[in-house]
Amino acid sequence: GQQLNQSPQSMFIQEGEDVSMNCTSSSIFNTWLWYKQDPGEGPVLLIALYKAGELTSNGRLTAQFGITRKDSFLNISASIPSDVGIYFCAGLTSGTYKYIFGTGTRLKVLA
Amino acid sequence: GAVVSQHPSRVICKSGTSVKIECRSLDFQATTMFWYRQFPKQSLMLMATSNEGSKATYEQGVEKDKFLINHASLTLSTLTVTSAHPEDSSFYICSARKGSWGTNTEAFFGQGTRLTVV
Asked: Is the peptide bond preceding residue A8 cis, with omega within 30 degrees of 0?
């Protein structure tokens, strides 16, 4: 199936550092969603973006809907150990109205 | 947010038997639910889109006779894995869309079901 390219694939960071990850597509999306998944659990919605250029924050998390509508970015500031997990972006396609998921970014935080 | 409950969280079944997984939206109505399959250390692969009151739409390569989907009410969708085989062992996750098309919508996920076929 279709997937979005997400980078980096994985990253180790020190506690307190800022983290950036992005998601790119060859297609235009109307909505971008960012999720966090812990092992053995379903993804939990972090941020939803609905308009090109939109910048939205949720606590230490900030996400942006790219101007071209083909990409999105997620930043985590001052990371803490509980930020460990897999982060997925998801784009909502126009027309077919399906949520397509990114390949995921595995984040590990070193205390 | 919104709450989506998936049951069971884990199931072990014998090869050749069928298993039913339920996905319920607890505090909102969902005309559309989605079923995903996730292999270890991989992303979520969409299997099918479930629409209340109509037949599910399956993704290419997904056998509709193997993975039966029923969306009989606005709060419940079920996935039945028929004649399960070891290769069907996987993590299955549902999500429910909150909001109507044409408005800002979000998808909320269940806890997932770990299926092991022995």
From this structure: yes
